[in-house]
Amino acid sequence: MLDEMNDALKNCKARLLAELTERGCWEGRLSSSALATAVASFALQQGGRIEAAERGREWIRNNRNADGGWGDSPESPSNFTTTLLCRCVLDEEVGDPSAVRAEILRFYGSDRTFSIPILTLCMLAGKLGDNWSIIPQLPFELAVFPHRFYSSLRLPVVSYALPALIAMGLARHANRPQRAAFWRNGMKNRVMDILQRIQPESGGFLEAAPLTGFVAMSLIGAGFRDHLVTQSCLRFLEETVREDGSWPIDVNLSTWLTSLSVRALGGNLPEIQRDRVREYLLATQLKEEHPFTHAAPGGWAWTDRSGGVPDADDTAAALIALYHLMPPDAASRTVAAAQAGVEWLMDLQNRDGGIPTFCKGWGKLPFDRSCPDLTAHMIRAFTCWSGKLGDDFDAAMINSIQLGLDYLARTQQSDGSWIPLWFGNQAHPKQHNPVYGTVRVVEALAELDERKFPKAVRLCARGVSWLENISADTPLYGVEEIAMRVGITGNEVGHLLDLTRNGTSFSAGPIGLYFASLWYSERLYPLIFTTEALTRCLERRGTVPGQGFGQATNQWSVV
Predict the structure, then answer these.
(1) pTM of the model
(2) Residue 289 near residue 311 (C-beta atoms within 8 A)
(3) What is the pLDDT of residues 419-465, one digit of tens each?
(4) In terms of domains, do 133 and 18 share one?
(5) Contact between residue 252 and residue 305 where contact means Cβ atoms under 8 Å apart
């Protein structure tokens, strides 16, 4: 088995290095999305961009599931929301308007971030009649308040969705103004100025076709078809359509994939490539306050494109990658970047000790809350840089880690697992992905010094035990999850080698969970995760499960 593992790892590393671009990053390829394609096509149709819209509709026609519906990715089973939007775009029947509205509002609950855009598209497509009062009015006028007050305003959308708040609110008001809110008319130009200021140079909000398409169609429905914001949205959609007429949910995850690839390779790249990747990561760190979320400088987004927004997961991943890439002769720049990134993460930490994705203090809606996987990622990044940034930083990082451990202790499930935020499993009864969440937490806990953080030992042992004894009713979805489990427990390494044909063939599954629970697959995930798993297995060969924990030992059982 050892020879087979070494051969497979050699194949994985060669394949992963071959994916490195001349720009010094890994770009990958996200799965095409029926929902993104439907929204983009509809917005382009509304905006008079007929050719691109028809190409999108043709892709939708050609990618219908056998049951007549559509899922988020080509590998996904049909779901109500995606099927509804595809039917609207193809001008097919969608059913009783009251039932459609009730189902959408029920599914998304108090989070209006996605339910109102969906209802707005249905209304603009003529599928819900002409009574706009059935769509809740978003308070777009709140956008004129200073950003620091948003969390206290209890907005009905998540922190990243200000463009949706404005655009959908304007569409609803333009088509069904409320007498008591006539003063909103005086706010329209002001909020459009705000929307224009926060629109990225690319024209794509978050570099995402769904959000950008929803904004464009709503502004057109509100009478702003010729506005610069609308036209920039439509330009973005035309420029990002794929050769087959489809759109992914986001243009790429280049910075995220680069950080993960560096970590999987342990920073072991040829010198020229190593320098190029380091320069890419240093260049993509945000140097100024972000105009969208007003995040302070120091963080990283998932992409180097202008629509990316700094977040905790990508910042932690970039910090770990820079640690692996730091050479003695360029240490000062890398250390300065690490100090800024560490400060950025510490400032983001919530009062509950956990780390949210974008903004501190937003706890009302799911994608703004603290979550275990991001908290663990922060801990792992701080562990890497411990002792390298100065005593003041060390003291502050230790305090953040202690608070994070308290949070992880509270959020560990009764069976020992943790539930992540940005990854799921479509076969799981609740669409959770405890394998991903538990692995990410265990990775962080196992690298801590047990003398400084004794609580981590118990938490880690329970997590490893759960991974080693996963019950039969916990589904493992393809290469990605199996590789992650192999990296911790060593179980099923032979199965992983079979699935990947000894590190030469990789099939991506939709384990990624995007905004508003949109599923996606990423072509490089199985390759990256397998490379890291096999490396870990070989490095830890012969250790004992649950022992050897402390002072960044990072040890688990292996074959």
Answers:
(1) 0.92
(2) no
(3) 999 999 988 888 899 999 999 999 999 999 999 999 999 999 999 99
(4) no
(5) yes
